[in-house]
Amino acid sequence: MLYMTRMDVAFPPHLSAAQIADFQAREKEYSGNLQREGTIVGIWRIVGEYANHCLFDVPDNDTLHEVLSGFPMFPYMKIKVTPLAKHPNSIS
Amino acid sequence: MLYMTRMDVAFPPHLSAAQIADFQAREKEYSGNLQREGTIVGIWRIVGEYANHCLFDVPDNDTLHEVLSGFPMFPYMKIKVTPLAKHPNSIS
Amino acid sequence: MLYMTRMDVAFPPHLSAAQIADFQAREKEYSGNLQREGTIVGIWRIVGEYANHCLFDVPDNDTLHEVLSGFPMFPYMKIKVTPLAKHPNSIS
Amino acid sequence: MLYMTRMDVAFPPHLSAAQIADFQAREKEYSGNLQREGTIVGIWRIVGEYANHCLFDVPDNDTLHEVLSGFPMFPYMKIKVTPLAKHPNSIS
Amino acid sequence: MLYMTRMDVAFPPHLSAAQIADFQAREKEYSGNLQREGTIVGIWRIVGEYANHCLFDVPDNDTLHEVLSGFPMFPYMKIKVTPLAKHPNSIS
Amino acid sequence: MLYMTRMDVAFPPHLSAAQIADFQAREKEYSGNLQREGTIVGIWRIVGEYANHCLFDVPDNDTLHEVLSGFPMFPYMKIKVTPLAKHPNSIS
Amino acid sequence: MLYMTRMDVAFPPHLSAAQIADFQAREKEYSGNLQREGTIVGIWRIVGEYANHCLFDVPDNDTLHEVLSGFPMFPYMKIKVTPLAKHPNSIS
Amino acid sequence: MLYMTRMDVAFPPHLSAAQIADFQAREKEYSGNLQREGTIVGIWRIVGEYANHCLFDVPDNDTLHEVLSGFPMFPYMKIKVTPLAKHPNSIS
Amino acid sequence: MLYMTRMDVAFPPHLSAAQIADFQAREKEYSGNLQREGTIVGIWRIVGEYANHCLFDVPDNDTLHEVLSGFPMFPYMKIKVTPLAKHPNSIS
Amino acid sequence: MLYMTRMDVAFPPHLSAAQIADFQAREKEYSGNLQREGTIVGIWRIVGEYANHCLFDVPDNDTLHEVLSGFPMFPYMKIKVTPLAKHPNSIS
To answer: Top enzyme class of this protein (chains A, B, C, D, E, F, G, H, I, J) (predicted)?
Structure first.
């Protein structure tokens, strides 16, 4: 089941560069695993912003929340979730 | 080059059911062609709305505008375009 | 799987009182069936507005869109869908 | 008398992990009591956000404000209250 | 139990001056009755707008919706309802 | 001359509980005096929010600004002022 | 007593050019009279919009509403009123 | 003196295709003249929308309003004007 | 050439009362000079807010930006600039 | 390929004047280089704001994101990107 998300990241000012780098490294690993297992089927940077669009394929709403709240940077992200259905004009 | 779009459709009240059906038939054919040629690489219905998210792969901005303004229902659509870049965490 | 919706109804000015009454009668029947079969598990009027909050229990996103777009008054409704997950503090 | 609420939580950056955990523990107990006594008749996590939809059944506005402002995390929550009435299409 | 409302009126363009005058006459009578019976305890014009603030005293949410949806001009009004509680600094 | 206000309070995170309590005590006294002298003719808590609706009766705009900016918590309040006129349907 | 207003004009599509010209002629006369009597002390076109900023000097809120609702084009205007007070840095 | 504008076009539904084509032809001529005389120094289509960004070079505010309100499609355009100043980092 | 501005002031929480008083004193002097030289032709407090409307008369956009960015409290102000043109109904 | 951007700068309160001056110096150099190489083809200050409009000419979305995220003050900027296409009325 597919969901489109938009995630915007905003670190609080008190985080050090090292702390931020650590968050980003763990985020990269977490995100990579989700891609390898097919949970994230698309991830794109939004040009000019510290933000992304992500396409998730999960069995249900509860799994999606579990996955999203597990992102290391979840406390610093604003996430908007859009549930998707098959489009009648889709040929796939 | 990838762009995410969100398209919202709103027909004016004076269109007849037949006119709307004709628009939708032509839209389906136009959209199908774009998918077969690889210009649209993803199209999804937004649940509960007469709207979609569409992922376009085009060589440049001019081509994208030409494609979007060629939709039969373009005069009745509100389109928001988000240019995308490669995400540093993407494994693809 | 649960989703909260908010639906706002706005009829175009050219509809007659009889047409509106017909829409409302068909809407009542459609809504009643969804409640009897357990698809709608809660429906409430928002005080002072021609709008409601509705709680849906459906197997997936596609079913929800099929149900929502099947409402007789769907063309005259603005629907916002919020996917829900189990709350960690819920005792049910 | 029913009210739908949406609560969004945002902790200020100076709170420690221990302080947050303490808030969450007291919140869970407070929320559980409200559910057991029938004041909260539904509580759901909004997918991807530190937020919830809550359905309250209280005798009047004053009681609702007393209950809401009693949440341990009230100072860190943004609450939107929507009063509900019986829906004419409700079969319950 | 008190509620503050804001009502904004917008007539569709096809209404004649006579029809509007008729609506306004019935509205005045309806509003006057609500004031005499104590349901409306305050009504004020918002300067420069076809809008008002109204303070309602009703036993519950259902009654408020019944009263509001009974306004002759209800189909042409956008109503925002704010439930009120006793203020701790109020001396009344 | 009447004005409706909405005041939203937000304390900065560095204030201590004692400082907040002191602000609230002075606010209560200031508000009580305004009520006793007839400057505030109504004050209500907005359910679920650290906010109020207040109805002021003052001779002119300058007096209203002087009164509002004299609130002890003025630096921490966001105030929206709506000038009111007599409503043609008012029977008072 | 001073108030700043912003007025945005939007004619409904069914008005003829002659009707619009008539409205504009009566508006010009009405506005000129208000300027000559000192009720309007400043009127400026907002560049690129069918809108203006207007500075009114009136004895009270009721007078301002009477003046504003008397504009021939009042039914086609959206008006926002901002009450003004003497600025502490003003040298006038 | 430079100003950036954004213009959004929305034709009312009652205009015929011929009327729209006539508006567009006159618009093209008007816009071309402004470019040739150096009043418009840049004009770009916003991808996916019936809208543009335009960079104007005019002697003053009054001239800009005269130019903008002279567009044949001015009644059907929503225009937002942003006055520009020299940027300290500009090398031109 | 005239421009209407709205300026909203928000001091960061770490400024001391003395620092704020110093800013305000320098602001008063700067503003007074601008009024005496005719650059500011009107300045009004917005009732209930730490904000003002200001009417500027300057030769061009660059001068206005220079004047605005010279305000001692500029880093703590949010400024919205509206360019004005002569109104066709103005009798001045 | 052209893109219009709007960049708004907001420094966090803990930065010293020296740190800000250093950021601004590096920003000026970075921006100057982009102008000299033809990546930035226009940069303008928005009057009254710490913000600019910038016109970029880059080969693709990825390059634009690389350029934008390379600005020394990128972490303190909110950037909105609008992709541009050739306008049918453009004579250039």
So the answer is: isomerase
D84 neighbors D3 (Cβ within 8 angstroms): yes
In the block, tokens 């629907």 appear at: C79
- What distance in Å separates the CA atoms of residue H51 and residue D64, rounded to the nearest whole number? 48
With bands split at pLDDT 50, 70 and 90, how would you rate the model's confidence at F52? very high
- Residue D13: pLDDT band (50, 70, 90) is confident
Per the CB < 8 A criterion, the answer to whether C44 and D85 are in contact is yes
Distance from C-alpha of A50 to C-alpha of D11, rounded to nearest angstrom = 21
- Residue whose tokens read 């009447």: F2
Q: Give me the residue label for tokens 């549930």.
A: A83
Tokens of C18: 């009889």
A/B interface, count of CB pairs below 8 Å: 77
Residues 6+ apart with CB under 8 A from B65: H45, H47, H48, J85
Q: Compute CA distances I33 → B71, I27, I36, whole Å.
A: 58, 10, 5
Nearest to F79 among I13, I45, I49 (CB): I49
Residue A92 pLDDT grade (very low, low, confident, very high; cuts 50, 70, 90): confident
Which structure tokens are listed for B39? 């210009």
Report the CATH number at residue D71. Answer: 3.30.70.1060
Contact H/J (≥3 CB pairs under 8 Å): yes
3-state helix, strand, coil in chain J (%, to 5): 35, 35, 30
**How close does chain B come to C78, measured CA to CA in Å?**
7
Cα–Cα distance for residue pair A86/G80, rounded to 1 Å: 44
∠ Cα H12 H15 H21 (to 5°)? 115
- Chain C and chain E share a number of CB contacts under 8 A equal to 19
- Is the complex ipTM higher than 0.90? yes
Q: Is C61 on the interface with A (CB under 8 A)?
A: yes
Interface of B with C in 6-35 (CB under 8 A): 13
Q: Using the predicted structure, report yes or no on whether residue B85 has a pLDDT greater than 90.
A: yes
Backbone phi, then psi, for E81, in 5-degree steps?
-110, 130
Answer yes or no: are the C-beta atoms of F85 and E44 closer than 8 Å: yes
Tell whether D40 is covered by a domain.
yes
Domain range for B52 is 2-83
Per-residue pLDDT of G53-91, as tens digits, reads 999 999 999 999 999 999 999 999 999 999 999 999 999
Residue D67 touches partner E, C-beta closer than 8 Å: no
Given an 8 Å threshold on Cβ–Cβ distance, is G1 in contact with F61?
yes
F85 reaches G (C-beta below 8 A)? yes
pLDDT score at H70: 98
Q: Say how far residue J5 (Cα) sits from the centre of its chain.
A: 7
**Contact list, C72 vs chain D (CB under 8 Å):** none
B38 sits in the region (left: phi over 0; alpha: psi -120 to 50; else beta) called left
Measured between CA atoms, how close is B33 to chain H, in angstroms? 19
pLDDT in tens, chain H (92 residues): 999 999 999 999 889 999 999 999 999 999 999 999 999 999 999 999 999 999 999 999 999 999 999 999 999 999 999 999 999 999 98
Does any domain span residue I89? no
- Using CA atoms, how far apart are residues E24 and E11, in angstroms rounded to an integer? 11
Residues of D in contact with A65 (CB under 8 A): 45, 47-48
- Tell me the longest C-alpha to C-alpha distance in chain F: 49
Question: Structurally, how many domains does chain C consist of?
Answer: 1
Residue carrying the six token digits 């649209």: B40
In angstroms, what separates the C-alpha of J38 from chain B's closest C-alpha? 18
Cβ contact C9:C76 at 8 Å: yes
- Is I13 within 8 Å of F14 (Cβ atoms)? yes
Is residue G8 situated within a structural domain?
A: yes
The minimum CA-CA distance between A84 and chain J, rounded to whole Å, is 25
The Cα G27–Cα G48 span in angstroms is 20
Q: CA F70, CA I52: separation in Å to the nearest integer? A: 18
- Residue F21 located in a structural domain: yes
